[in-house]
Amino acid sequence: MRIDILTAVPEIFFSPLHASILQRAQTKGLVTIAVHNLHDWGRKGRIDDYPYGGGAGMVIRVDVVVAAIRTLSETYGPYDEIIYFTPDGQKLSQKLLNTLSLHNKLLLIAGHYKGIDDRIRAYVTQEISIGDYVLTGGELPALVLIDGIVRLIPGVLNDVESALDDSFQDNLLGAPVYTRPPVFEGRRVPEVLLSGDHQAIARWRWEERLRRTAERRPDLLTDHDAAAAPPPLKPSATSETPSNTTSLPSPPAKPSKAAHDTPSE
């Protein structure tokens, strides 16, 4: 996958794109992420002007952005989606991230200052908002979108199942997760997770997802068609973890042994 970003402040992207999962995905060659400075297309570097009709703030010129879009499209070929971040755009969701992750080439346009001349809407294919609040520019929404998409690309995460178990993948929140120590200040890891009974663990996780969603995001359950029963356990699942992981000690009251999940991002 290739993701290009148009921005007036490219410096914002440096640290997030060179750390953790996003860096590893690029190192593995699974995604190419390129940041382009809009000032390169401005006359003498100038990309904004005063708004017609008066008012505070500066507006990014549509001719500058369109020139950049055309240059990048000629250089890298047509984009599957050209995405503009705007408060009145479609609300970003896991379903939308899943769809976008299947594309090969995306161009993200991050506005700044007072925004981009509204005529830019004629040159984009998607308008996206990450929530009902105001940020300084579209750079952080672009990073949110990139992180959400890249982690879905096969081979990016260490555990292929990890992204599939995330909150919102099936309109449910994720189940609670635990690791060592098995007891901390009197608070124990649920016994079922130490039992080694994978059917029981799968059911517990499903029930916890339903319970947590009902308590914290009941609006999600209205769209959920399969809330009555957990998904079937994969026949090939003989262990939750690779064979080279160590066992998690059980609480003293009930000695037991279970595989310990390898931490991954």
Give a short overview:
The protein has 265 residues and is α/β, with parallel strands linked by helices.
Description:
This protein is 26% helix and 17% strand. The protein has 265 residues and is an alpha/beta fold. The protein has two domains: 149 residues, 3-Layer(aba) Sandwich (Alpha/beta knot), CATH 3.40.1280.10; 97 residues, Orthogonal Bundle (Trp Operon Repressor, Chain A). The C terminus is likely disordered.
Per-chain topology:
Elements: E1 2-7, H1 14-17, H2 20-27, E2 32-37, E3 48-49, E4 59-60, H3 62-76, E5 81-91, H4 94-100, E6 105-109, E7 126-129, H5 139-150, E8 183-184, E9 187-188, H6 198-216, H7 218-221, E10 247-249, E11 257-259
Parallel strand pairs: 1-2, 1-6, 5-6, 5-7
Antiparallel strand pairs: 3-4, 8-9, 10-11
Descriptive tags:
11 strands; two-stranded antiparallel sheet; elongated; single chain; Alpha/beta knot; 26% helix; disordered C terminus; alpha/beta; 2 domains; five-stranded parallel sheet; Trp Operon Repressor, Chain A; 265 residues
Fourth CATH level, the homologous superfamily of the largest domain: SPOUT methyltransferase, trefoil knot domain
Strand content: 15-25%
Helix content: 25-40%
Order of strands across the main sheet:
2-1-6-5-7
Q: Name the poorly predicted regions.
A: 236-265
Q: Strand pairing plus helix content: what structural class? A: alpha/beta
Average pLDDT taken over every residue: 86
Class of the largest domain in CATH? Answer: Alpha Beta
Task: Write the CATH architecture name of the largest domain.
Answer: 3-Layer(aba) Sandwich
Shape: elongated
Instruction: Give the termini separation.
Output: 20 Å
